[in-house]
Amino acid sequence: MRRRKLDLAQVPANVGKGLDDRYKAATPLRGLLNKVFPDHWSFLLGEIALFSFIVLLLTGVFLTLFFDPSMKEVAYDGAYPALRGAEMSQAYASSLDLSFEVRGGLFMRQMHHWAALLFMASIVVHMARVFFTGAFRKPREANWAIGVALFLLGFLAGFTGYSLPDDGLSGTGLRIASAIMLSIPVVGSWVSASIFGGEFPGELIIGRFYIAHVLLIPGGLLALISVHLGLVFAQKHTQWPGPGRTNDNVVGERMFPRYALKQGGFFMAVFGVIALMAGLFQINPIWLFGPYRASEVSSASQPDWYVMFMDGLVRLMPAWQINIPIGDGYVIPPLFWPAVVGLGALTTIPMFYPFIEARRLKDKTSHHLLQRPRDNPERTGLGAMAFTFFIVATLSGGNDVIADKFHISLNAMTWAGRIGLVILPPLAYWLAVRICLGLQQHDREVLAHGVETGIIKRAADGRFYEVHQPLGPVDDHGHPLPLDYAGWVVPKKMNRLGALAPAVKGFFYPVEKPAEAPVSPGMPPVTAREEREEITSGR
Amino acid sequence: MTSDTPAGRRFRVFNRRRSAPSRARRRLGAAARMLAALALAGGVYTAFAPGAFAEDTRQLSASAQEGKALFDNSCITCHGRNAEGVEGRGPSLIGVGSASVEFQVGTGRMPMTRQEAQAEQKPPQFDKAQVKQMGQYIQELGGGPQIPSGDLTTSLEQDPKALAAGGELFRINCTSCHGFGGAGGALSSGKYAPSLHGATTEQIYAAMLTGPQNMPVFGDNELTPDQKREIITYVKMQLQDDKDPGGLFNLGRYGPVTEGLAIFVVGITILVFAALWIAGKS
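The joint structure predicted for all components is written out below.
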């Protein structure tokens, strides 16, 4: 009997055929793998959040193998000498064991924490990109709202995780959370009692936060992230305007192989940066805080940075207490306004911004092309205003550390925050709008008159004038014909028009690039650049 | 009534002296009584007054005299003659003890640059010997707490639990101002608790004993000398001798503020450049 020859080259095809025969995967996969994504560095900011979320899941699973969410009192008898013999909860003891006795445990804990900070930071940066470029406009309003909800969920995930080690910092944070719940009129005490299972701190809260932190909130995050990405696939990614790009097409790279490879590479970069930070920078040294005791509150007890704006608002709030003389009397403590109303407003109102803007502009069309920030000055101004507010509030959340390290009076910091919170956002709005208009104006100038060449000519009558290089055709007198403002980059230097050979290669880009259509392998430049000769001394 | 009986004469004599003493006699009598009272009071005071006050012109020891010379040159403007203090400038130093002098002058806080919320630590103006002399002067002038001699930390071989006990005491008494990592913290109106990372054992002990600047006094009734030694042991071993297992950089142990700064300055910055790089490779 003749042995059948195995044709190795045919194996993948055969396997693929076999799979497709059974599962009918080829047609949907082809669509997926051929899907085109526009390419721009700012489109990768959201990916940082996605990838750090993956790191969070991986390191988080590792941590759950060793963490014990129990509030049972034990006497610590572990590797860390400065706490040996101290009474503490089992949760804190297991966090210490995780840090000092589990091999690689401290590194994993730090990776988890840095990844959490990076997750929230990239969400905010990504959100800024989406906002300032108008990527949230119809049809992507829902995805914008989901993004805001993701920030809120991330906020809760971060806070519950911050509370789990049950060290001094965790307990202080929980105490404040309980105070915030108590400040809600009428239902406050019931809310706090039901969450803590009685009086603060009780014996349940770590177990409850644990299940919220490892199951409920990550489940919600995972679901929302899936919808978020699914919508990006379904509605297609927005793109910058430019030659060959319209509201009805997508110019970019296919998902497979280039885009997938790039994404894989970027994932490695994110993973690497998180690991690097976890190895180099110590984060949340829980062993220094000691077990939580209500009487021991360290100075510089701050929440993580993404909660700090709320802490800052609380610090800036004047002590205005409202007494309502009904029955035995109700009190609305000043804490209620920044912590409950403030947080609620700051996380829900932005969700509706796309609708507010569309309504104001009476704009019902779908937009797939982005706008440069300068092309919608009012939106940019509003964004600058919101971010200034957020930054002032966040800095005020750390105002004691800033006051101490920069030798400023803490009281001065508080007042600077109060005044800054009112004065700076409108100022930022005005500045941003003026800068946007100025940039637009300059673009229009170049379109109308051409690029400044730096060549000064003297006319026969003695006048001096600068020669401009028109960007388009000229009329009979040599004056450039006006070009339409297209909301995209206008070359402003002669180098960009090919007046000089490309300069020395930079690390990221050639330092000066001749003008060409925004990079896209699908749309190569129409004409090849002419060859240049090296400039020599002429000998 | 003009009977000449002996009783009547006695009465007349008595009556005359009682009813009409001359002005001169009255004054003389008052002066004599005043003198007697003064002599009595003075005598009693001399007999019973405490020796310390009596020895007003007691000789200072040689080193205290050196200290007095330094004091009269550098401190007298604010703390006044004989360290009695000057209203609105500097407090009296009677009773603050040599521990206080050694802390305030030894860390450069005194002499103060200007009147402000709190004297700042700076390079000391006097060397160790001079500081000791000034301390000696203030000590001999009014007494007060002194830094004990000998080792100010607890040996962990003798008492293995001292480190954990010191940590507990540190968290109860010190972290609310100096912070969990001893990095210092802000107080109200420009006051602050300084970082403990550069403090010597003597300085920490003296600070607890005397409560310099805005620090409360932790007298020997509140924290026994042994407890003070335990706290110093914790600060020395856990906070100063670089016990940061979490990485090369501890970010100053300022808590989440610097961590939040780091994620933007390091993490986001690197990744934005990485994004620029990756997106640029088309």
